[in-house]
Specification:
Length: 500
């Protein structure tokens, strides 16, 4: 057997995952992805076991809804060939494995530190030693932006190589606020503590990450979630998508100097996040999603309130969007700016919004559905093909419209909510579980492994930004440096989702 085949949110025994020699492991996974747009790596990580590292590779088939898993055991002292040399989808995964365990790759094309994690193998290297790409020339100059920014955002450094105003190369360095979240999942033993960790992985994706954790934990503990929990997670995911997309439209307007759009879209985000406050007591939906229960049942009164919000929202949103997308001064700043081609998106391994704006259909809601996406919706991803800022902005506008329709459909049949119960449930022994969720930014993946006593042995988190930061770097090549702010905001990738 070349790999174990599972589906989203399925728990399996560790012993059932095939273990290969590293050479066989490399060949099988490279062959599995070769020439395949419908298959991609959703997670690839290592687990420390004394002086050995066990590697797990998880590749999803977006046509069949299957996920293929295999593994290999290597020695820390080994020097091994990289998968990245043959397929760049693995590039960041292997950089992380190298940083965490000191694994030496003989042919990795870009072997640099990923996060400067506190538990990294080589603590002699600090973030100040990051080896930036250099181009020695009297005609070229470097421009550094960050890690401290003028706005109230998280730290990240952008190093441009420019010829005058033209960007020739951008390298993005992150890792300034590594929080050790994956290790904390092992140290914390209470379910509430772990759920709180999940909702703080990326503050703008509270629902996405906590839904992934909740789905995973219920599967790991062999607990079935009832329809009311699936309803709550599906509705909250789409509301989070509406809120963040609307806020992004406001920010993009600010970056191109369109004050009216910035004001109107910014105001329209407010009633959506305020509805989270009415529903669960927090504008970012913290405390709302929990494994096995919900502390804030959805009511008919809340449904009526949300319908009223949508009536007011849609009227102003449609008017503003029509004006925004018809202004020549707006279109001149968005169209053919920051282009990522289909071929680049495929080679990088992009997911979510970034992939879909380049013609690459990657959307977990249709390819590996969970909660009510597989039952209630026949989700059709919105696909754009130009790969520019305009496509990324237009996708947001159309996804907002689609998400509102999904929310209205959910409100047609509100399930009965059961009383919240104590859900300090215990996982099975020697198990492996994988959970995929389509957050507003794209594909979220959580993996968990338990030991022979049922305690967490490993918890691996992948935010969609893991795949997409390289796409931002590619998008600004041959653009003027003044285009960087709008390019950057059109991706709106997560620093905290990267610096786990």
């Amino acid at each position: 057997m070349k790999y174990l085949t599972i589906h989203n949110n399925q728990t399996v025994n560790i012993k059932d995952i095939p273990v290969f020699t590293y050479r066989e492991f490399l060949e099988e996974n490279i062959v599995l992805l070769k020439g395949q747009a419908k298959k991609h790596c959703v997670n690839y990580f290592g687990v420390n076991d004394n002086l050995q590292i066990k590697l797990y590779c998880c590749i999803a088939d977006d046509d069949t809804h299957e996920i293929f898993i295999n593994s290999s055991i290597i020695n820390i002292a080994d020097s091994i060939p990289s998968l990245s040399a043959q397929n760049h989808n693995f590039e960041k995964f292997e950089r992380e494995i190298h940083e965490n365990f000191g694994i030496k790759y003989t042919d990795h094309p870009w072997l640099k530190p990923m996060r400067y994690a506190n538990n990294r193998a080589n603590k002699q290297l600090g973030i100040a030693d990051y080896p930036f790409y250099k181009a020695d020339s009297e005609e070229l100059h470097e421009v550094g932006v960050g890690p401290i920014h003028a706005g109230i955002i998280e730290p990240g450094h952008f190093r441009f190589i420019c010829n005058g105003e033209q960007i020739l190369h951008l390298e993005i360095q992150l890792g300034y606020q590594h929080r050790g979240i994956e290790q904390l999942f092992l140290q914390k033993t209470k379910l509430l503590e772990r759920a709180t960790l999940a909702e703080n992985i990326a503050g703008d994706t509270t629902v996405g990450h906590t839904s992934a954790f909740s789905n995973l934990w219920e599967s790991l503990c062999d607990v079935s979630s009832d329809k009311s929990l699936q309803f709550s997670r599906t509705l909250a995911l789409e509301l989070e998508r509406i809120a963040i997309h609307t806020g992004d439209l406001a920010a993009i307007c600010a970056d191109i100097g369109y004050q009216l759009g910035n004001s109107v879209f910014g105001r329209l985000r407010t009633p959506i996040v305020n509805f989270f406050q009415e529903w669960g007591g927090n504008r970012l939906a913290k405390g709302l999603i929990r494994p096995g229960k919900i502390n804030y049942p959805f009511t008919k009164e809340l449904a009526q309130r949300l319908k009223e919000i949508f009536i007011a929202y849609e009227r102003d949103f449609n008017e503003m969007a029509d004006k925004f997308f018809s202004l020549p001064s707006v279109l001149s700043r968005l169209e053919k700016t920051g282009i990522v081609s289909y071929e680049e998106a495929l080679e990088i391994g992009t997911v979510g919004m970034v992939a879909r704006t380049c013609g690459l259909n990657r959307d977990i809601r249709s390819s590996h559905p969970s909660n009510l996406y597989g039952d209630l919706f026949n989700h059709e991803p919105i696909i754009k093909h130009q790969g520019d800022v305009y496509s990324r902005v237009k996708l947001r506008e159309e996804e907002i419209q689609q998400s509102i329709l999904y929310c209205k459909k959910l409100l047609e049949n509100i399930p009965e909510f059961n009383k919240a119960e104590n859900t300090e449930i215990k996982p099975g022994n020697d198990k492996f579980t994988l959970s995929l969720i389509e957050g507003w930014r794209g594909e979220i993946c959580h993996c968990a492994i338990t030991d022979e006593q049922g305690n967490l042995k490993a918890y691996k988190i992948k935010d969609p930004s893991h795949h997409n930061w390289m796409a931002l770097a590619q998008s600004v090549r041959n653009n003027e440096i003044s285009d960087f702010p709008v390019c950057n905001k059109s991706f709106n990738l997560s620093y905290s989702g990267h610096d786990l």
